[in-house]
Please model this.
Amino acid sequence: MQDSFIKLTDFDKSAIYLTDYSGFSEWERHPAGDELVHVIEGETTLVLLNDGIESKNKLLSGEFLVVPQGVWHRFESPKGLKVLTITPPPTEHSIIKPG
Model:
């Protein structure tokens, strides 16, 4: 599968993105608001990091999860994933587990 990431449109103070990829993402968080994650195709484990504790949330096609404002999170999607997100800017990234 070829990785792709596209901004579809602006929405309120956020943007709507469509992403198609496989693998494990880096950590990210959104300090200005909640992010909606909706799995269009495939599956993922969306890992949230709260007070140093990881919680793993398995999401299948058609399911969604709201990532609370400021919560570090990452995707584990070894089999591939097509996901639609409503993401408030800015996005902060980290390649190592924040702590």
User: Anything to note?
Assistant: The chain has a mean pLDDT of 94.
